[in-house]
Specification:
This protein is 11% helix and 19% strand. The chain has one helix at residues 60-68; strands spanning 26-28, 33-37, 42-46, 56-57. It has a four-stranded antiparallel sheet, with no helix packed on it. Strand 2 (33-37) and strand 3 form a beta hairpin. The longest helix has 9 residues, at 60-68.
């Protein structure tokens, strides 16, 4: 997965560890987006899906890596 370097969906997640499903963003590989919420606010961020990417929770560390791994030219953000 590749994500634009200026987008940080992990900042929108819940800090409450008892709400596990809200503590990490969700990668929707079929729709090519990452969704994050804290139960009050929600962000949806476009991503480039790579071979082998599957839908599921994504750690903040994986998102940081997706921003650093971008060796290609910047991809356009769909608006």
């Amino acid at each position: 997965m590749k994500i634009h370097k200026s987008l940080r969906p992990e900042l929108a997640v819940s800090k409450d560890q008892s709400r596990y499903v809200l503590t990490e963003p969700w990668l929707d590989a079929e729709n090519k987006v990452i969704v994050a919420t804290d139960g009050r606010h929600m962000v949806v961020v476009p991503v480039e899906i790579e071979e082998g990417d599957t839908s599921g929770h994504v750690s903040a560390e994986a998102l940081a890596g997706a921003r650093k791994d971008k060796r290609d030219k910047e991809f356009a953000i769909a608006r």
